[in-house]
Design goal:
Largest sheet: 7 strands, mixed
Helix content: 40-55%
Oligomer: single chain
Radius of gyration: 19 Å
Shape: globular
CATH class: Alpha Beta
Structural class: alpha/beta
Distance between the termini: 39 Å
CATH superfamily: Spore Coat Polysaccharide Biosynthesis Protein SpsA, Chain A
Order of helices and strands: EHEHEHEHEHEHHEH
Number of strands: 7
Strand content: 15-25%
Length: 261
Amino acid sequence: MTYRACIVVPVYNHGAGVTALIQEVAPLGLQTILVDDASDSDCRGILKDLVKSFAWVHLIEHSKNLGKGGAVLSGLREALDRGFSHALQIDADGQHDVGDIPDFVSISQQHPEAMVTGRPLYDASVPKGRRFARYLTHFWVWIETLSFEIKDSMCGFRVYPLNVVVPLSRRVRLGRRMDFDPEVLVRLCWEGVPIISRPTRVVYPKDGQSHFRLWEDNWLITCMHVRLVLGMFVRAPGLLLRRARAGRAADGSESSRLGTP
Protein backbone atom coordinates (compact mmCIF):
# COMPACT_ATOMS: atom_id res chain seq x y z
CA MET A 1 0.00 0.00 0.00
CA THR A 2 1.27 3.47 -0.88
CA TYR A 3 2.15 5.47 2.22
CA ARG A 4 -0.57 8.05 2.84
CA ALA A 5 -0.99 9.67 6.25
CA CYS A 6 -3.73 11.75 7.83
CA ILE A 7 -4.37 13.23 11.27
CA VAL A 8 -7.04 11.93 13.69
CA VAL A 9 -8.17 14.15 16.57
CA PRO A 10 -10.60 12.91 19.27
CA VAL A 11 -12.61 15.88 20.59
CA TYR A 12 -14.82 16.21 23.65
CA ASN A 13 -15.64 19.81 24.62
CA HIS A 14 -12.27 21.17 23.49
CA GLY A 15 -13.62 23.83 21.14
CA ALA A 16 -10.89 26.42 21.72
CA GLY A 17 -8.13 23.82 21.75
CA VAL A 18 -9.17 22.14 18.51
CA THR A 19 -9.50 25.51 16.76
CA ALA A 20 -5.91 26.38 17.68
CA LEU A 21 -4.78 22.91 16.65
CA ILE A 22 -6.36 23.14 13.20
CA GLN A 23 -4.72 26.51 12.62
CA GLU A 24 -1.33 25.05 13.59
CA VAL A 25 -1.55 21.94 11.40
CA ALA A 26 -2.90 23.79 8.35
CA PRO A 27 0.58 24.38 6.81
CA LEU A 28 1.34 20.64 6.94
CA GLY A 29 -1.16 19.81 4.18
CA LEU A 30 -2.46 16.68 5.92
CA GLN A 31 -6.12 15.67 5.75
CA THR A 32 -7.57 15.80 9.27
CA ILE A 33 -10.42 13.79 10.77
CA LEU A 34 -12.10 15.29 13.84
CA VAL A 35 -14.13 12.88 15.96
CA ASP A 36 -16.77 14.66 18.02
CA ASP A 37 -17.44 12.37 20.98
CA ALA A 38 -20.87 13.88 21.82
CA SER A 39 -19.59 17.34 22.80
CA ASP A 40 -21.86 20.12 24.02
CA SER A 41 -23.65 22.41 21.57
CA ASP A 42 -20.97 25.14 21.69
CA CYS A 43 -18.19 22.74 20.75
CA ARG A 44 -20.34 21.08 18.08
CA GLY A 45 -20.89 24.46 16.48
CA ILE A 46 -17.18 25.19 16.46
CA LEU A 47 -16.42 21.84 14.81
CA LYS A 48 -19.02 22.38 12.10
CA ASP A 49 -17.56 25.83 11.39
CA LEU A 50 -14.08 24.31 11.04
CA VAL A 51 -15.37 21.81 8.47
CA LYS A 52 -16.98 24.63 6.50
CA SER A 53 -13.82 26.74 6.64
CA PHE A 54 -11.27 24.06 5.74
CA ALA A 55 -11.95 21.59 2.94
CA TRP A 56 -9.27 19.22 4.28
CA VAL A 57 -11.03 18.85 7.65
CA HIS A 58 -13.60 16.05 8.02
CA LEU A 59 -15.97 15.41 10.91
CA ILE A 60 -17.37 12.27 12.53
CA GLU A 61 -20.11 12.80 15.11
CA HIS A 62 -21.03 10.45 17.95
CA SER A 63 -24.58 10.65 19.27
CA LYS A 64 -23.37 9.49 22.69
CA ASN A 65 -20.02 9.70 24.44
CA LEU A 66 -17.91 6.59 23.78
CA GLY A 67 -14.74 7.72 25.53
CA LYS A 68 -11.34 8.62 24.14
CA GLY A 69 -10.58 5.11 22.92
CA GLY A 70 -13.93 4.83 21.19
CA ALA A 71 -13.38 8.18 19.47
CA VAL A 72 -9.88 7.25 18.31
CA LEU A 73 -11.10 3.92 16.92
CA SER A 74 -13.86 5.70 14.97
CA GLY A 75 -11.24 8.00 13.47
CA LEU A 76 -8.84 5.17 12.60
CA ARG A 77 -11.55 3.17 10.86
CA GLU A 78 -12.70 6.24 8.93
CA ALA A 79 -9.11 6.93 7.90
CA LEU A 80 -8.71 3.41 6.51
CA ASP A 81 -12.03 3.68 4.68
CA ARG A 82 -10.77 6.90 3.07
CA GLY A 83 -7.72 5.12 1.71
CA PHE A 84 -5.08 6.26 4.20
CA SER A 85 -2.35 3.84 5.24
CA HIS A 86 -1.39 5.60 8.49
CA ALA A 87 -3.04 7.97 10.95
CA LEU A 88 -1.33 10.34 13.34
CA GLN A 89 -3.33 10.72 16.54
CA ILE A 90 -2.96 13.96 18.46
CA ASP A 91 -5.10 15.23 21.33
CA ALA A 92 -7.12 18.45 21.14
CA ASP A 93 -6.19 19.82 24.56
CA GLY A 94 -2.95 21.57 23.61
CA GLN A 95 -0.57 19.20 25.41
CA HIS A 96 1.34 18.05 22.33
CA ASP A 97 3.94 19.83 20.22
CA VAL A 98 2.49 20.20 16.71
CA GLY A 99 5.98 21.04 15.47
CA ASP A 100 6.95 17.40 15.98
CA ILE A 101 4.34 16.08 13.53
CA PRO A 102 6.62 16.18 10.44
CA ASP A 103 9.27 14.15 12.25
CA PHE A 104 6.72 11.60 13.50
CA VAL A 105 5.42 11.16 9.94
CA SER A 106 8.96 10.95 8.54
CA ILE A 107 9.88 8.16 10.98
CA SER A 108 6.67 6.36 10.07
CA GLN A 109 7.45 6.66 6.35
CA GLN A 110 10.87 5.11 6.94
CA HIS A 111 9.35 2.30 9.03
CA PRO A 112 5.77 1.88 7.70
CA GLU A 113 5.31 -1.45 9.50
CA ALA A 114 5.99 0.15 12.89
CA MET A 115 3.97 1.96 15.51
CA VAL A 116 5.55 5.36 16.23
CA THR A 117 4.68 6.73 19.65
CA GLY A 118 5.69 9.73 21.70
CA ARG A 119 7.88 9.54 24.79
CA PRO A 120 6.97 12.65 26.81
CA LEU A 121 9.53 15.20 27.94
CA TYR A 122 7.69 17.03 30.72
CA ASP A 123 8.18 20.50 32.07
CA ALA A 124 7.19 21.76 35.53
CA SER A 125 3.50 21.91 34.58
CA VAL A 126 2.92 18.16 34.90
CA PRO A 127 1.01 17.20 38.09
CA LYS A 128 3.09 14.89 40.28
CA GLY A 129 0.17 12.50 40.74
CA ARG A 130 -0.18 12.07 36.98
CA ARG A 131 3.52 11.34 36.62
CA PHE A 132 3.50 8.68 39.35
CA ALA A 133 0.43 6.99 37.85
CA ARG A 134 2.10 6.86 34.44
CA TYR A 135 5.18 5.14 35.83
CA LEU A 136 2.96 2.59 37.56
CA THR A 137 1.27 1.78 34.26
CA HIS A 138 4.64 1.59 32.46
CA PHE A 139 5.82 -0.97 35.03
CA TRP A 140 2.87 -3.25 34.30
CA VAL A 141 3.23 -2.77 30.54
CA TRP A 142 6.87 -3.93 30.74
CA ILE A 143 5.69 -7.06 32.56
CA GLU A 144 2.85 -7.66 30.08
CA THR A 145 5.22 -7.47 27.10
CA LEU A 146 8.26 -9.03 28.83
CA SER A 147 10.31 -6.20 27.37
CA PHE A 148 11.18 -2.51 27.64
CA GLU A 149 10.24 -1.89 24.00
CA ILE A 150 7.35 0.40 24.96
CA LYS A 151 8.99 3.45 26.56
CA ASP A 152 5.71 5.24 27.31
CA SER A 153 2.31 3.59 26.99
CA MET A 154 -0.01 6.53 27.67
CA CYS A 155 1.09 9.32 25.35
CA GLY A 156 -1.74 10.23 22.96
CA PHE A 157 0.65 11.44 20.27
CA ARG A 158 1.39 8.54 17.91
CA VAL A 159 1.24 7.20 14.34
CA TYR A 160 -0.81 4.05 13.72
CA PRO A 161 -0.25 1.62 10.82
CA LEU A 162 -3.92 1.22 9.89
CA ASN A 163 -3.63 -2.14 8.14
CA VAL A 164 -2.67 -3.68 11.49
CA VAL A 165 -4.54 -1.74 14.16
CA VAL A 166 -7.98 -1.67 12.51
CA PRO A 167 -8.14 -5.47 11.97
CA LEU A 168 -6.89 -5.90 15.55
CA SER A 169 -9.74 -3.70 16.82
CA ARG A 170 -12.21 -5.98 15.04
CA ARG A 171 -10.76 -9.19 16.49
CA VAL A 172 -10.35 -7.91 20.06
CA ARG A 173 -12.53 -5.58 22.07
CA LEU A 174 -10.07 -2.87 23.07
CA GLY A 175 -10.68 -0.47 25.93
CA ARG A 176 -12.88 2.44 24.90
CA ARG A 177 -11.80 5.05 27.44
CA MET A 178 -8.46 5.98 29.02
CA ASP A 179 -7.49 2.30 29.04
CA PHE A 180 -7.24 2.33 25.24
CA ASP A 181 -3.82 3.93 24.80
CA PRO A 182 -1.79 1.41 26.85
CA GLU A 183 -3.84 -1.64 25.82
CA VAL A 184 -3.52 -1.10 22.08
CA LEU A 185 0.26 -0.73 22.39
CA VAL A 186 0.59 -3.94 24.38
CA ARG A 187 -1.55 -5.89 21.92
CA LEU A 188 0.33 -4.49 18.93
CA CYS A 189 3.57 -5.53 20.61
CA TRP A 190 2.13 -9.02 21.09
CA GLU A 191 1.37 -9.03 17.35
CA GLY A 192 5.04 -8.41 16.62
CA VAL A 193 4.57 -4.81 15.47
CA PRO A 194 7.80 -2.82 16.12
CA ILE A 195 7.32 0.07 18.56
CA ILE A 196 9.43 3.16 17.88
CA SER A 197 9.53 5.83 20.58
CA ARG A 198 10.27 9.44 19.75
CA PRO A 199 10.86 12.04 22.52
CA THR A 200 8.38 14.90 22.42
CA ARG A 201 7.66 17.88 24.64
CA VAL A 202 4.40 17.66 26.62
CA VAL A 203 2.85 20.49 28.62
CA TYR A 204 -0.23 20.76 30.81
CA PRO A 205 -1.94 24.09 29.95
CA LYS A 206 -3.08 26.09 32.98
CA ASP A 207 -6.60 26.33 31.59
CA GLY A 208 -6.53 22.76 30.28
CA GLN A 209 -9.58 20.56 30.72
CA SER A 210 -9.05 16.92 31.70
CA HIS A 211 -11.71 14.28 31.18
CA PHE A 212 -9.91 11.66 33.25
CA ARG A 213 -12.39 10.20 35.75
CA LEU A 214 -10.38 9.40 38.86
CA TRP A 215 -12.24 6.36 40.16
CA GLU A 216 -13.91 5.02 37.01
CA ASP A 217 -10.87 5.27 34.73
CA ASN A 218 -8.44 3.94 37.33
CA TRP A 219 -10.76 0.96 37.79
CA LEU A 220 -10.89 0.36 34.02
CA ILE A 221 -7.10 0.58 33.81
CA THR A 222 -6.72 -1.85 36.72
CA CYS A 223 -9.06 -4.36 35.04
CA MET A 224 -7.16 -3.90 31.78
CA HIS A 225 -3.84 -4.76 33.43
CA VAL A 226 -5.36 -7.88 35.01
CA ARG A 227 -6.52 -9.06 31.55
CA LEU A 228 -3.18 -8.26 29.95
CA VAL A 229 -1.10 -9.97 32.64
CA LEU A 230 -3.22 -13.11 32.20
CA GLY A 231 -2.78 -12.80 28.44
CA MET A 232 0.97 -12.47 28.92
CA PHE A 233 1.19 -15.85 30.67
CA VAL A 234 -0.44 -17.52 27.66
CA ARG A 235 1.92 -15.74 25.25
CA ALA A 236 5.06 -15.88 27.40
CA PRO A 237 6.81 -18.73 25.50
CA GLY A 238 6.32 -16.98 22.15
CA LEU A 239 7.35 -13.59 23.55
CA LEU A 240 10.52 -15.01 25.10
CA LEU A 241 11.38 -16.90 21.89
CA ARG A 242 10.94 -13.69 19.89
CA ARG A 243 13.24 -11.81 22.30
CA ALA A 244 15.87 -14.57 22.03
CA ARG A 245 15.77 -14.50 18.23
CA ALA A 246 16.04 -10.72 18.20
CA GLY A 247 19.03 -10.93 20.54
CA ARG A 248 20.78 -13.50 18.32
CA ALA A 249 20.08 -11.41 15.23
CA ALA A 250 21.54 -8.33 16.93
CA ASP A 251 24.62 -10.27 18.01
CA GLY A 252 25.08 -11.60 14.47
CA SER A 253 24.78 -8.12 13.01
CA GLU A 254 27.33 -6.76 15.46
CA SER A 255 29.76 -9.60 14.73
CA SER A 256 29.41 -8.99 10.99
CA ARG A 257 30.07 -5.27 11.48
CA LEU A 258 33.20 -5.99 13.50
CA GLY A 259 34.38 -8.68 11.08
CA THR A 260 34.47 -11.42 13.74
CA PRO A 261 33.38 -15.04 13.04
